[in-house]
Specification:
Radius of gyration: 17 Å
Structural class: alpha+beta
Strand content: 35-45%
Largest sheet: 4 strands, antiparallel
Number of helices: 3
Strand order of the largest sheet: 1-8-5-6
Distance between the termini: 39 Å
Number of strands: 8
Shape: elongated
Number of domains: 1
Helix content: 10-25%
Length: 144
Amino acid sequence: MIRTLTSLLLCALATAASARSFMPEMNRVDPKEFGEPLKTTLVSADMEKDEIAPVAVEFAVQLKKPIVMGCKYIFRITNTSDRTVVVKGYTVPDQKFSEKLKPGASIDLLTNTMMRCGATKEEKKEHGCDDRAPSINIQEVEVK
């Protein structure tokens, strides 16, 4: 029983260790517009083993609106490579996604955070969520 639990724990830790987090910058002038895209490449251990080159993607974020206990954001993932890619991950632990992106395609992911934003109602409404954008976490990448 203990060996089984230990094995399961090690598998969970190995999966978590392979995830990569990205924090694109918000648009400081107008948070309701997407910020400058964060350009990066994604590669998995399987892709490296099969000698498949990393795929280029861009991540961008914008503020949708403040909500009662936090903020609502939109993450945009754009496949800037010339190959179709499947990306799996999460924005917050209970909001997982699995998306197939053709070359040049984009997807928008709506995400809520429960981070307190701003001391007063006015402060929260004006600028409370500007610098609290959550990260986007990629757990698996597969080229099709």
